[in-house]
Design goal:
5-stranded mixed sheet; alpha+beta; globular; 25 strands; 805 residues
Length: 805
């Protein structure tokens, strides 16, 4: 990696941001150049990429043929995916609108579904702010003014000082760019789409630049002017890059196949381990490839994409890395975890679909196909070793005992009362890690996870390293900085807290909202006991519907230029926005005090715990009524967030807190699958008999039946209510049985008799009794209405059932 090239490419459009923030009417390239010089940056390799990345500037510039600005110039064009340079020469022009907001990336996705358009107003990513949701375009435009840009500039300017105090760290710079530019449009062209953020554009420009630099080195090319400017069209068609895809197998079984004792803390630890291990593996790979996180296009849910140079050296390193990683997993977890790689060679023209041949989706498909082949032939180079009696991966020691958590046999076990007697080192480490992720949010000091090659007593867990093993520690910010100064740190990860300016520290956005008491996590039993009505643990699984198809075909449009919008910039932006929702917004939705309550009568949701939330799915447990409320809120927020262009399905189950977690996970997964089979955009509750489209559940069951039941009736015998009628669980069960046992048609006489038995003598209750009777009679005229009535009654019974001691 040439650090100067990457920094210059990341900052090449900084002047656009400054121009919109200060109202200076000048060339944005010059503005960025002058700002960097004022901040003490004197390196011409960086400055030239900022000053000369437009054609009108670079054409007559007095530059050497190997100047990096030529690479930045062509990579900026590729990243933009359209040639704006004929009218965008960096000056203020009539066709540009500084108040233009960032258009929602979903505006162009699956446009056959609706005509909704929305936008984001300018904002930095602040974990203390409320949820930033897309708005009506005109409203977002009115909120995007000089004041908003000025606030964002103050944030950037202050934090840029921290980065430039010492030698600029590329990943720290990328962190600042993400925090500041994620909701700022790369272009404000009045006739443009303007749905790609300045962050996505800047990062992708740097990724492509690093690929070109490595490719040129491999080819022995130093005349960048010729390749990137004078004969620019040739480099567009040359296969200079590869899209690398990585996928981790075995996630579900690894998380959930454990004993029940201490299960919540253990599965949170296991889930977090997979998150932090994937981040660590990615950084180990990037370091070995001599690259930065600019080359990481996406990471989430055990899957990642990287953009790399198409060289033999890169391909050889990829193979070496995969063997090292899987060899490590075999030693630590035998065949429970496996990472598959697949890549596809590509040119710049293919990334931007320049020839209207759907080339970009083919690149992703090819990489996915290679992943599938790899999974089928996993361990092909180590099969002999695996089936050898003397294999280093198999422990043949006769003096082995079984771990009480994972049920594997080990020679060395540790006594742990919380987990149930004797446990292996890995399971004990996962349990400690579950506490560690909880402590990040509860300590007064800013906390982060640091990685060192040194093994000390207080390490949490071991991680993959090309040199053997790394060790994870929980540190406060000052301890981490001190360790950096003493050369004891490899890298660090903050959680939902960008520590800009702290070298070697990368922020991880993570859905980790959880309920705790004192210094401990709530257990499944603790959460279950805080339910309203019946004492049950709610388990929720949700997954975005048809996401693969959305990436492959979602940006296609009608007409001759069908693949105009299917560009690498939009693919990256879509991935980033989905990750933002599931890894960042989810915490806000869970803890937001103004979140709508449906089946909960408390101030805001809190008796829940997010086990994991990936790039498009999630697993949440908690008090059952609060988890059900949260599921509705997640769907409603996602509907707005995605312009209703993507849907999300859910499986919701209620279980005794003592049921083994792997059973809960399996049962709730089956419920989710039922929702997927119900034309998607659905929720399945309890069992296969209660599956509904979301709007049916929200509007018909909750909005109509449930609210009317509560309007006409009360269910607590001790409650004093003069005008409502009392319905005890005895009557509700009787009515439920009558409805359930009607195979072909309802016996109206039996229903009427049951209703007559609760007819009130109090005249004040007569109106509500009649209303309730009519509600029941009106909803037994079809199987679908009977089904909704049954679900409503079940919910009311659960909410009012006497609690077990």
């Amino acid at each position: 990696m040439n650090k100067d090239l990457i920094i210059g490419s990341v900052l090449h459009d900084l002047g656009k941001f400054i121009m919109r923030s200060t109202n200076e009417k000048t060339n944005h390239s010059l503005l960025g150049y002058n700002y960097l010089k004022e901040k003490g940056i004197t390196n011409d390799k960086i400055l030239n990429s900022v000053l000369y990345h437009h054609k009108n500037k670079i054409t007559n510039a007095n530059l050497t043929n190997d100047d990096f600005s030529y690479i930045t110039y062509v990579c900026d064009n590729i990243s933009s995916a359209i040639d704006r340079r004929k009218k965008d020469d960096g000056n203020i022009e009539f066709g540009y609108d500084k108040k233009a907001p960032l258009m929602n990336i979903f505006n162009l996705l699956n446009t056959n579904k609706n005509n909704i358009k929305s936008a984001f107003n300018v904002s930095d990513i602040d974990i203390k702010k409320d949820i930033l949701m897309p708005k009506d375009i005109e409203k977002a435009r009115n909120l995007t003014d000089k004041y908003d840009y000025s606030k964002a500039f103050e944030y950037f300017d202050k934090n840029f000082e921290y980065i430039t105090n010492n030698d600029i760290n590329v990943n720290s710079l990328l962190q600042l760019i993400e925090s500041t530019f994620s909701f700022i449009p790369a272009s404000t062209d009045k006739n443009g789409i303007n749905d790609v953020s300045l962050y996505s554009h800047s990062k992708l420009t740097a990724a492509i630049a690093s690929c070109f630099f490595d490719y040129f080195n491999f080819k022995g090319i130093t005349d960048y002017k010729k390749c990137c400017f004078s004969e620019e069209e040739n480099i567009y068609s040359e296969k200079t890059m590869i899209l690398l895809s990585g996928d981790l197998s075995g996630i579900q079984d690894f998380i959930f196949n454990i004993s029940s004792k201490g299960a919540l803390r253990s599965i949170k630890g296991r889930s977090f381990y997979l998150e932090i291990e994937m981040e660590n593996i990615i950084d180990e790979m990037l370091n070995y490839l001599d690259l930065s996180r600019a080359n990481l296009l996406y990471n989430g849910g055990g899957h990642f994409y990287m953009l790399l140079a198409n060289t033999k050296e890169t391909k050889d390193k990829i193979k070496y890395l995969q063997n090292k990683i899987n060899s490590y997993f075999l030693r630590k977890y035998y065949i429970d975890l496996y990472i598959a790689f697949g890549y596809s060679e590509c040119s710049a023209n293919e990334l931007i679909n320049i020839n209207n041949n759907d080339t970009l989706s083919k690149i992703y498909k090819n990489a996915g196909f290679e992943i599938s082949k790899d999974k089928i032939n996993r361990y092909k180079d180590t099969l002999d070793e695996l089936f050898n009696d003397n294999s280093k991966y198999i422990n043949n020691d006769l003096d082995l005992r079984e771990c009480s958590v994972c049920k594997r046999s080990y020679k060395d076990l540790h006594e742990n009362e919380d987990l149930g007697s004797m446990v292996c080192e890995s399971c004990e480490s996962m349990y400690k890690l579950g506490e560690g992720i909880f402590r990040v949010d509860t300590m007064k000091d800013e906390m982060l996870f640091s990685i060192s090659s040194k093994k000390e007593k207080d390490f949490l867990i071991s991680l993959f390293s090309l040199d053997g093993e790394n060790y994870l520690y929980l540190k406060n910010k000052n301890e981490f900085i001190n360790d950096i100064n003493n050369n004891q740190i490899i890298r660090g990860y903050s959680i939902n807290n960008p520590m800009i300016g702290v070298k070697y520290c990368v922020n991880i956005w993570m859905g980790n909202y959880t309920r705790f008491k004192g210094k401990s996590l709530y257990s499944f039993s603790d959460l279950s006991k805080r339910s309203i009505g019946i004492n049950r643990l709610g388990v929720l699984r949700m997954d975005v519907d048809d996401l693969g198809s959305a990436f492959i075909k979602g940006f296609d449009k009608e007409g001759e230029d069908k693949y105009k919008y299917a560009t690498i910039s939009r693919f990256q932006s879509l991935s980033s926005m989905l990750s933002m929702f599931f890894k960042f917004y989810l915490n806000k939705i869970a803890g937001y005090k103004d979140t709508k309550l449906y089946f909960t009568n408390k101030d805001f949701l809190k008796n829940i715990s997010i086990i994991y939330a990936g790039g498009d799915d999630l697993f949440i447990v908690g008090a059952w009524n609060e988890v059900l409320d949260l599921s509705i809120n997640i769907r409603q927020y996602f509907k707005i967030f995605s312009n209703d262009r993507l849907s999300i399905s859910a499986g919701f189950g209620m279980y005794d807190a003592n049921l083994p977690i792997n059973n809960m996970a399996s049962l709730s997964a089956n419920l989710l699958e039922i929702s997927k089979e119900n034309t998607k955009d659905s929720i399945t509750l309890f069992d296969e008999n209660n599956v509904y489209k979301w709007d049916e559940f929200i509007n018909d069951i909750y909005g109509n039946l449930y609210l009317k039941f509560n309007e006409y009736c009360f269910f607590d015998e001790e409650e004093k209510c003069e005008d409502k009628i009392y319905l005890g669980n005895g009557f509700l069960y009787k009515l439920l049985n009558l409805l359930k046992n009607s195979k072909e048609s309802i016996n109206l006489a039996r229903i009427s008799y049951a209703l007559a038995m609760i007819e009130p003598k109090n005249l004040a209750q007569r109106e509500n009794y009649n209303n309730f009777t009519n509600l029941i009679i009106d909803n037994i005229n079809s199987k679908e209405n009977i089904k909704k009535l049954i679900t409503t009654i079940i919910l009311i019974i659960y909410l009012n059932r006497e609690r077990e001691e």
